[in-house]
Amino acid sequence: MPQDRPESDLSSLRIDKNKKFDDRPRSKKWLIGVWILLAAALVLVYFMVREKVAPATSVKVGTVEMLSGSAAQADLVATGYVVAQRKAEVASKATGRLEYLGFEEGDNVKKGSIIAILDNNDIKANLELAKANLQQAEADTLQAERDFARQKKLFESGAIPKSMFEDAETKYKVSLAGFSAAQASVKAAEVALENTYIRAPFDGTILTKNADIGDIVAPFASSSSSKGSVVTLADMSSLEVEADVSESYINKVSVGQRCEIILDAYPNDAYSAKVKKIVPTADRSRATVITKVSFDKVDGKVLPEMSARINFFTASQGKQASTAESALVIPKDALTTRDDHQIVFVIDKDRVRQQEVTIGRKLGEVIEVLTGVNRGDRVVLSPPGKLVDGEKIEISN
């Protein structure tokens, strides 16, 4: 048996040629590939979902527009508001309850017309009392005058002593003083009564009604429940535009300079105008100078507090304004600087596209753009510093 053992051990090492290769244990490397594909799919889904649910940056939007004619030819453009040179808050010198109001907003009034009346029954009674006192004083003066005349004749004839004459003279002078005081009382009562009648100080149009019948009207509106004025009156023939001109460009403006007024409410209508006055002071906080521009002719469409754009021309530009070439403009707030390049962010569906532009003249609130954008393009106004090309945005109201 010991001799047979080595032979049996060697036979166990022989290769079985009948055993197939597929019977060997399989490798598990394919599972690693599956897991890699699954992880890649999850990453892809994550980025797709994140793009859809990621919060968008809220922005305000402006439009690239075309300025034509005189607006493009202007040497300087400024903005302002229509104001009335003659405007008044019509109030009363007296304090009382408003009893009558004869006009509404938009009504035209003539100088001296009664706009409103305060309750004045007590003042009328005082006036009647003052007139009665005047009549009494007049009668007393007449009697004192007659007594004085008689005493004077008697004194001159030696029938009475001088003291009696002097008494008569004193009574007469006292009566004259009382008569003058009574006249002054009547005048004061008449003035007090007149103060209850609120009249128009000039020809104009009622802009606003500040009080209603039953309200207490006081000269200085001493309490929260009282009204300081009854109506706001403006002379519509004195309408002009107060424009804010940057102090950097005020040297381009002069009194008498020809210009053009475009109301925002009527952008297709141009009003011929000229510079009336340059206020000799600047606004420190805004770095602007108020320039008053007067209309050559005002129509009924021009109303106080309307916003307006003023195109200032040189002498030659004023003659050629109607034939001027058009200019493409963007809001000045749309322009920003990135890497020393002037760019705008153009809106493309729900994303922004960074676009470099070449700019020209500064025309008030807009800037001429020579290349980079097209008419009708929407651009981001005051773009945030963190806004980047391709970022998702939503338009703010």
Description:
The N and C termini lie far apart (104 Å). A six-stranded antiparallel β-barrel has the order 3-13-16-15-14-17. It has helices at residues 5-11, 29-53, 70-73, 121-157, 162-194, 315-320, and strands at 57-63, 65-67, 76-84, 87-90, 96-101, 108-109, 114-118, 197-199, 204-209, 216-217, 226-227, 231-234, 239-246, 258-263, 270-283, 288-295, 307-312, 327-331, 336-338, 341-348, 351-356, 358-363, 366-371, 378-381, 393-395. It has six helices and 25 strands. Helix 4 (121-157) packs antiparallel against helix 5 (162-194). It is elongated, with a radius of gyration of 46 Å. It folds into four domains: 57-69 and 327-395, conserved putative lor/sdh protein from methanococcus maripaludis s2 fold, CATH 2.40.420; 76-85 and 235-312, Elongation Factor Tu (Ef-tu), domain 3, CATH 2.40.30; 87-120 and 196-234, OB fold (Dihydrolipoamide Acetyltransferase, E2P); 121-194, Helix Hairpins (Orthogonal Bundle), CATH 1.10.287. With 397 residues, the chain is α+β, with helices and mostly antiparallel strands. The relative contact order is 0.18. It is 28% helix and 34% strand.
